[in-house]
Amino acid sequence: MRIAIPTANGKLAMHFGHCEKFTIVDTENETIIKKEELVPPPHEPGVLPKWLKEQNVEAIIAGGMGQRAQELFNNAEIKVTVGAPAEDIDDLIVKYLNNTLESGANCCDH
Fold first, then answer.
1. Number of domains in the chain
2. Domain holding 58: CATH number?
3. Is residue 6 included in any domain, yes or no?
4. Long-range contacts formed by 8-12: CB under 8 A, 24+ apart
5. Is residue 104 part of a domain?
6. Most buried of 44, 85, 92, 101, CB within 10 angstroms?
């Protein structure tokens, strides 16, 4: 599975659409096998769903994301988890894979 996390300083960046980079994590058998950091294209409506689909991302862990973006990812068949805490990337991935990632409120209001 390929999972994308918007990141800043090695932790989840709370505002999805305006992050500096994405950490793309490849997992296999509930284990992290590869991580890479990618700089996203400039933020414009509809650009990130298309770009992340081109990166073969299957799931996203985010702190906050607007409703329209969630719909676009759903249409692209990319699973979205919002309300995740600003924690270390590896910790988030392990919790996600073990179904123990607790999501809180979506910190994005648009």
1. 1
2. 3.30.420.130
3. yes
4. 10/88, 10/89, 11/86, 11/87, 11/88, 11/89, 12/61, 12/62, 12/63, 12/84, 12/85, 12/86, 12/87, 12/89, 12/92
5. no
6. 92
